[in-house]
Predict the 3D structure of the following.
Amino acid sequence: TTVNISYKIVNKNNPEDCFYNDYDEASIVIPGLYETEANDNEKPIVLPEIQEWKGLSGTFTLSENTKLVASDESLVDTLELVQFYFKEMLNREIEVVVGTPSSEDIYFTLSEKTELGQEGYIANIDENVTVEAYGKKGIQYAGATLVQILAQSEHKDTLPKGIIRDYP
């Protein structure tokens, strides 16, 4: 990811003596965790844009039995909002349950990992889909992102395999 930085240099002994870079940004490239490979799926287009994407090869397809599975009862209200997104954007009824997911489900769980903040999440889309977030907002935003991606597929039921790390 390329990050543009503006900066201000201030003399500690004389705060009036300063320089502010207001006309030219410094660009820094921050390397990602993964290397791009030849068969990787392209980064999905959603709003807001996904911060980090590592494409894998292939797709995950929802079935008639796919459910939104919460790791515990505390996520049910948030997943009911995601369920609403499925209905409104995909015209798809999807059940919300608590428990252990099957391979065709989308599993949501809260994590102790604080690095993505309250609104961030990690979604691993592979043979199954697992979403991990520190806060409920992250769970909600992950659901919205997955629905946007599904809406772009031909039958509104396919996700490209890959790993999403998203945060504000």
In short: The mean pLDDT is 93. Residues 42 and 55 are 6 Å apart (CA to CA). DSSP finds two helices and eleven strands in the chain. The first strand starts at residue 2 and ends at 5.
